[in-house]
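Sample pair:
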Amino acid sequence: MFKEMLTQEWFEALIRLIHSTADFRVSPGELEGIKVPTLLIGAEDDIITPLAIMEEMRARIEKAELVVIPMAGHGAFIERPREFLSAVLGFLAKYPRGEGG
């Protein structure tokens, strides 16, 4: 399924996305301003957003939960879809509709 998505248009869109977010930065104060339950999903082998950065984000967001997906890189949602989805569904199950904060 994923292999069929890898068209020239897909790669061009990915390059545009990367260029559009190249200067995107979030300040520590902005992270500390997040007051709702927040799921952060990191990956053991992610070299783009290393676990040290994810841990720092978790420490700055009051109600953050960090799930680390083993044996995955930055594309954990593609590399380990079951583990990724399990983390998302497990997090959502903790907060019935309207009870997140």
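The longest strand covers residues 38-43.
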